[in-house]
Amino acid sequence: MSVNGIGTAGYPAWQGARKAQQNAAGRSFAEQVNNVAGAKPHTSIVYMKTDDMLYSGGNGTGLSFYIKYAEGSTEDDPTVIAKGVDENGNEFEQTIHINKINPRNASLVEMTALESYMGVDKNGGLTSLPPETGMMGLHDRTNFMDMFQKQISDMKLLSQKKAAAYYQYSMQAYWDFMNKK
User: Are the C-beta atoms of 78 and 91 separated by less than 8 Å?
Assistant: First the structure.
């Protein structure tokens, strides 16, 4: 029993729960689950952003990457290099020509490169892209303009006017990019 987070033995309740998670052999609950599932422990790689990076981050799938300008990038042909690990932990490197990105058929890495290059306002968050991108893998492609329109519609339905306006602003930035090509 616990009262206000204090167990009956005078220890915080979470400590008692933690001890209960361990079996007689001293293995943690997480180790037991991994052993039963036959899975190896999941590890994540996080790239710390440095001054020469346009972006460093990832999403909920385990996809993690950073973006830097490529050697030879020019104003007429802005080019970036994306390096990281995919959702399966495999390393990757991609060269992305910004002017060739099509937001109607793009990967998350391409759109993140475009977002970073353009300096789209992230409204205090991690990205200007819709939340559904949190489950995209390295090779998944989608129509981001449709994704924006759905997000705007959902926010209006929920009477979230500020969120709808923000996604409208973000979508407009990418429309402007497509129209100037």
Answer: no
Tokens of 102: 């099509």
Q: What is the pLDDT of residues 131-157, one digit of tens each?
A: 999 999 999 999 999 999 999 999 999
Number of domains in the chain: 2
22 and 100, same structural domain?
no
Q: Domain span at residue 89?
A: 53-180
Question: Residue written as tokens 């005078």?
Answer: 10
Rounded distance, CA 7 to CA 85, Å?
A: 43
Q: Tokens 């206000």 appear where? A: 4
Task: Measure the CA–CA gap between 121 and 129, rounded to whole angstroms.
Answer: 10
pLDDT tens across 26-67, in order? 556 555 555 545 555 556 777 888 889 999 999 989 999 999
